[in-house]
Structure formats: C-alpha cells, structure tokens
Amino acid sequence: MYRFLLTRQWVILTLIGLVLIPVMIELGFWQLHRHENRVARNERIGKALDAPPVPAERLTSPGREVPDSAVYRAVTAKGTYDAKHEVVVRRRTNGDDEVGFHVLTPFVLDDGKVLLVNRGWIPADGPQTAFPKIPAPPRGEVTVTGRLMRDETSAASGIKDVRGLPDRQIMLISSGQQAHALGKQVLGGYVQQTAPSADSPQLLGAPDHSGIGPHMAYAVQWWLFAAGVPAGWVVLVRRERKDRLAAAAAETAPAEPAEASPATA
C-alpha cells in the first residue's frame, strides 16, 4: 500500500520536502549568526562608550578607516575650528524625526592635520537649497570631546551620495572627500561632539545598544519549520494510506443481495 510513493505527485512532494529541510536549517543558522553579531556589536559599543577618552590621533590617521574597536570611542582633540569651510549634511533627523542638517566643521589640530567634527543637528529653517543659519563655533584654541565615528558610505547608510548639491552641502560625511575639498590631511572618520559649547547645535544622542532584535526567535522558527516538514510528510503518507485502504476495502466488499419483491396473486 506504499507503492503510491513512487507516483509522480508523491515523488515531487518528497523532493520538495528534502530541499526545504536543509534550506530552513541554514536560514535558522543565518538568523543565529545575526543574533550573535548583534550581541557582539552591543558589547563592543558598550565597552567603547564606557572607555575613558583618548587623543583622537591615537585611534585614527589620514587616509585610514576607523577600526571596529574604535567606533564610538570617546576621544579628545585640541585645536581651532575652521568655520569658513563648514558644511552641512542634508536630510538628517533629530530624536523627534524632524528633518534638518548636521553641522560638519573642520577642526585644525596643533600639527596642522584636520579632524572633522559633527557639532550636532539644526532644523531646516526655510528651503534646503539655501545654506542655513548655524551657531558659530567657539573661537580660539579649544578642546573637543566626542565619539569617534566611521566615514559614512551609501552601502552602509542607504543614503545616495547625490552630486550637484547647493554650495557647502553634502549628503555623506567622508573624510576622503573633505580632504580633497580642503586640500589638507584629514583624519579618517569624524567626531560626533558630546560636550556642548554655548549656543551649539543640538547634540546627537548615544547609540542604543540595549536591544538584541528578533533574530534568535526567527532562528528557532526556521528550525521548527524544518522539523515540521518530515512530520507533515509522515502525516500525509498515513492519511493517503488510510484512504487507499478504505477504497480498496470498498471495492472488494461482496455486493448485498437484492430484496425479493412480494408475490403477486
């Protein structure tokens, strides 16, 4: 009664199940790896935020990418702001999802190198084609404190690096692009300022590193789906066998004799 498993319908169904099982298992491990990466990222961010500040030039240098271990690390730098070459980063939001700009100001160090400082967020007051009014940075030599960040890219941020923007407006923070525009050595990455000055733009909050996301739950779901495929196949096979046995029994059952009609007078 299991010969029906060799029919075209059941062969296709079985093959589909055999393909789905390893695919679902692999998807479960993919979600597990995403969970592990999220946990590791949260731990790395937490350690960076809790670490004492160090001079920025100890963690980054011109033309080099900021390593993972240094991202969000508190750094300091001593120098002067170059407000003349200040630019704004378009289409950035604050904590209330209001659209505005990030203020990116070159910070000239004592050795002549430049560190890009994101001084914070300002609202888009008027058309975004015009350069907004920005609180002036402090004059003279000052010390900047902030979180070290990696250069922004379209691949990582999903923001398209649009060309032909109004003067002194950019879409992404790139130390390489700013080094070309300034004609100076610019340290890789940038600093997100955390210590405010008088009348400064709205400072940006620290990254949320408390959540772990739903990846572990998704992994368990995929593995349950993988276990359900063979279980469902067995249920279907038993049901098919039961139906075929019932049909065969009905075909082999003897026909009941017809009732005799009453004799006529």
Q: What would your notes on this structure say?
A:
This protein is α/β, with parallel strands linked by helices and 265 residues long. It has a domain at 53-193. 35% of the residues lie in helices and 20% in strands. It has helices at residues 8-50, 154-157, 175-182, 215-252, and strands spanning 54-55, 74-81, 87-93, 99-109, 114-123, 142-149, 169-170, 190-193. Strands 2-4-5-8-6 form a five-stranded mixed barrel.
How are helices and strands ordered from N to C? HEEEEEEHEHEH
First-residue to last-residue Cα separation: 54 Å
How large is the count of helical segments? 4
Give the % helix. Answer: 25-40%
Question: What is the average of the pLDDT values?
Answer: 89
Choose one word for the global shape.
Answer: elongated
Structural class: alpha/beta
